[in-house]
Automatic annotation (TrEMBL):
InterPro entries from the UniProt entry: Chalcone_isomerase, Chalcone_isomerase_3-sand, Chalcone_isomerase_sf
Biological classification of the source: Bacteria, Pseudomonadati, Pseudomonadota, Gammaproteobacteria, Oceanospirillales
One Pfam family here: Chalcone_3
Domain of life according to the entry: Bacteria
GO molecular function, one term: isomerase activity
Name listed for the protein in its UniProt record: Chalcone isomerase family protein
Keywords: Isomerase, Signal
Residues spanning the signal sequence: 1-21
SUPFAM superfamilies named among the record's database cross-references: Chalcone isomerase
Length: 188
């Protein structure tokens, strides 16, 4: 009997992991791993950002190893990728930039001072015209800083470990842009 229970548990863990590996959300394919600047990261979790009853984007978190420890992820200097894919025509560059700025304010509890210049640099990359299907990869590379890619093309690199923590905190902090999305990205 105990062997059947253990076998059933192992099978359920395997099937759960397989489902994550083949994830698709709102028509967006979410790969099980990504590689940037020589760092391969695995899918930790993904979810949909909704605002005012509109599904705005799909966000996925990639890490070197899966983790449910938000504080550990935020405090780490390890590589990470937060992939954001726009899924609504209602998301404009200006709205996306303002939402990101609000996320930084929440993540830092209103203390943007030490990273204000880096935040402004990132926000500028979001202000241009957006369309449904555009994808941003916010990749922390310990060798260079946070590399911001749009549709696979490097836009800018923003330095600083403090910036990395605040940027990831938009989704993972104790005051995230959406609690259910945080849980989904952490695989909870």
């Amino acid at each position: 009997m105990l062997i059947r229970i253990i076998s059933a548990f192992a099978l359920s863990v395997f099937l759960t992991h397989t489902a994550v590996a083949e994830m698709s959300l709102k028509g967006v394919s979410v790969p099980d791993k990504v590689t940037f600047s020589g760092h391969t990261m695995v899918l930790n979790g993904a979810g949909v950002r909704s605002r005012f009853f509109v599904d705005a984007y799909v966000a996925a978190l990639y890490l070197p190893e899966p983790s449910t420890d938000a504080l550990g992820i935020l405090g780490s200097g390890s590589p990470l990728d937060i992939r954001v894919t726009i899924i609504s025509d209602l998301v404009t560059g200006e709205r996306f930039a303002e939402s990101a700025l609000d996320g930084f304010v929440r993540s830092t509890h209103g203390d943007l001072g030490p990273i204000r210049e880096q935040v402004d640099t990132m926000i500028k990359t979001f202000r241009s015209a957006l369309k449904k299907g555009d994808t941003f990869d916010l990749v922390y590379n310990p060798d260079t800083g946070t590399e911001i890619y749009r549709n696979g093309e490097l836009q800018v690199t923003v330095d600083g470990l403090e910036f990395r923590s605040a940027m990831a905190g938009i989704w993972l902090s104790d005051d995230p842009v959406q609690s259910s999305l945080r849980d989904d990205m952490l695989g909870l």
